[in-house]
Write a structure and sequence with these properties.
- It is a single chain.
- The protein is α+β, with helices and mostly antiparallel strands.
- The chain folds into three domains: 128 residues, no CATH class; 64 residues; 155 residues, Heat Shock Protein 90, CATH 3.30.565.10.
- Helix content is 66%, strand content 12%.
- It contains ten helices and seven strands.
- The strands form two sheets. The protein has a five-stranded mixed sheet.
- The two termini are 92 Å apart.
- Bound molecules: adenosine-5'-diphosphate.
- The site of adenosine-5'-diphosphate has 22 residues, from helix 8 and helix 10.
Length: 398
């Protein structure tokens, strides 16, 4: 229901529109009269009708046509200052009023089209604003999700690195006795050479050449012990991954130097076939050594029950394709059965009484993070072969 104030406003607006129509027709009359006889009587009335329809709509437009027709009849159709009823006068008036009505109708239609266009444009504007706001909200949400995912990914990588470190330290602690022996050996050699040196110096005359040889051996053994300790520290330290161009053969040599006693203890004959032309790989030294360590230790453990044939471990490196370096660790141990092969790389899969089953899963994660691949296959006779391929470092062609 419209309020009284609303009704009042509407009446005022209608009165104003009719007022404009009456005024514009009256102004047209005054100007036309003033300019007589130099102008035609009708054009300014047409203009007044257009103005009335444009601002007032149909009602004021029709009113302006009628008002203008009456004024034209009264002032310009003879007899002037009176209403003519003869056919020629009526024809003249009809020639004016019919086109005037038609113009009024056109103006009204045009006005309506413009109003509809404006409304459509306004609606579109509102819609665009709504969609923009929605898009902005979606975008903000997306940004939030992206940063959330980034945080989750960072946390995941951190946990993975910590897990890798933990399993590395656990593997090292399993090898503690052998590793301790690896350090003890050069220390014992230093003592032996020290004793010998003292003896050579105690001779009369002292044998300086022999004494010098003993000291040189002591220095070498000291360096060996220090190298071993350096490697143990590097493997035990918790460091953030750092990638550089690495010679994979060198990493294997370093690992073998740590595992010499373990191999000896388990009566394992190690053979290496390290390709002389193996290109550099781009990776984290400690992580890649962890993979090699895991594979070699697994090979040693797989052969622990082997009786009646020699325990052979083969480490091989080669340039596998135009851009890949391949490493394989092959044993002649218990081998892999079909069911086991499916689960080898799953976390916590183990067949060993004291195993935790993280070594292979972590190794695969490390190799894949380096853009490579790690896989296993049974040998045709005994044992298994674990292989990984890594992309070679950019610009490396050694
Ligand atoms: P863990 O050594 O603690 O068991 P890994 O992830 O290193 O954990 O190994 C998972 C399992 O894969 C081992 O328990 C073993 O059954 C199998 N496996 C690994 N290496 C070999 C191998 N060289 N020969 C046979 N089986 C192996």
């Amino acid at each position: 229901m419209e309020t009284p104030a609303g009704v009042q406003n509407r009446i005022r607006s209608i009165a104003l529109k009719f007022g404009i129509a009456a005024l514009s027709v009256a102004v047209a009359l005054l100007i036309t009269q003033a300019l007589q006889p130099t102008v035609f009587p009708t054009p300014l009335f047409f203009a007044a009708i257009v103005i009335s329809t444009w601002f007032g709509g149909t009602g004021p437009g029709v009113f302006a046509v009628l008002f203008a027709t009456v004024l034209l009849d009264y002032y310009f159709v003879s007899p002037t200052r009176g209403f003519s009823m003869h056919p020629a006068g009526l024809l003249y008036l009809a020639q004016f009023s019919l086109p005037a009505l038609l113009s009024s109708w056109f103006v009204k239609k045009r006005r309506e089209a413009e109003a509809a266009l404006k409304e459509a444009r306004d609606q579109l504007d509102v819609k665009v604003q709504q969609r923009t706001a929605e898009l902005r909200r979606t975008n903000e949400q997306l940004q939030l999700e992206i940063s959330e995912r980034k945080r989750a990914e960072e946390a995941f990588h951190k946990t993975q690195a910590e897990l890798a470190h933990l399993t590395r330290v656990m593997t090292m602690s399993e090898l503690a006795t052998s590793i301790a022996h690896e350090v003890n050996q050069p220390l014992a050699a230093i003592v032996t050479n020290g004793d010998a040196c003292v003896r050579w110096l105690g001779l009369e005359p002292p044998n300086l050449d022999r004494a010098r040889d003993s000291v040189a051996r002591m220095i070498n053994e000291g360096k060996r012990a220090s190298e071993v300790i350096k490697r143990i520290r590097a493997l035990s330290k918790k460091t953030t991954p750092h990638k550089s161009a690495l010679q994979i053969n060198e990493l294997i040599h370093e690992m073998i130097a740590l595992l010499g006693t373990e191999l000896l203890k388990n009566k394992i004959r190690l053979t290496t076939q390290l390709g002389p032309d193996v290109p550099l790989v781009f990776g984290d030294r400690v992580q890649l050594q962890q993979v090699i360590l895991n594979l070699v230790v697994n090979g040693i453990e797989a052969m622990s029950e082997v009786q009646g044939r020699s325990r052979e471990l083969l480490i091989r490196t080669e340039k596998a394709s135009s851009d890949r370096v391949q490493v394989s660790v092959q044993d002649c141990g218990c081998g892999l059965d079909a069911e086991q092969s499916e689960h080898l790389f799953e976390a916590f899969f183990t067949t060993k009484p004291g195993g935790i089953g993280m070594g292979l899963s972590i190794s695969r994660t490390i190799i894949e993070a380096h853009g490579g691949r790690l896989w296993a296959s049974p040998n045709s006779d005994y044992g298994a072969k674990f292989q990984f391929a890594l992309p070679m470092a950019e610009g490396s062609e050694s």
